[in-house]
Design goal:
The chain is of the alpha+beta class and about 90 residues long. It has one domain. The protein contains four helices and four strands, in the order αβαβααββ. A four-stranded mixed sheet has the order 3-2-1-4. The longest helix is centred in the first third of the chain and has 14 residues. The protein is globular, with a radius of gyration of 12 Å.
Length: about 90
């Protein structure tokens, strides 16, 4: 499947779908280009970069939710590590 850039609407749809699938608790932070797109500073980005802070024990459930995402999202998702920068708290959870 060819890669395509993600717009703010596509990032928002990704966050909604992930939130629907993942019932654990924690916070998801958009970082890099995805943060800039979500906040309206750029029109699109190549990847949906994020950092996640989960409640202890929810790691497996998060991975399952991510793996169950529709294929239109999966090829554009990258985990960012804390040392790569500060992101936007896009998806606060319980």
């Amino acid at each position: 499947m060819p890669r395509r850039d993600a717009t703010r609407a596509e990032i928002a749809a990704f966050l909604r779908e992930l939130g629907r699938r993942f019932k654990g608790s924690g916070s998801l932070f958009l970082v890099g280009g995805s943060m800039l797109v979500y906040q309206g500073y750029r029109p699109r980005t190549v990847d949906i970069d994020y950092r996640i802070e989960l409640t202890s024990g929810d790691d497996g459930e998060f991975i399952q939710a991510l793996r169950a995402m529709p294929s239109r999202y999966v090829h554009n998702i990258k985990t960012a590590f804390a040392h790569r920068g500060i992101g936007s708290r896009a998806c606060p959870r319980r």
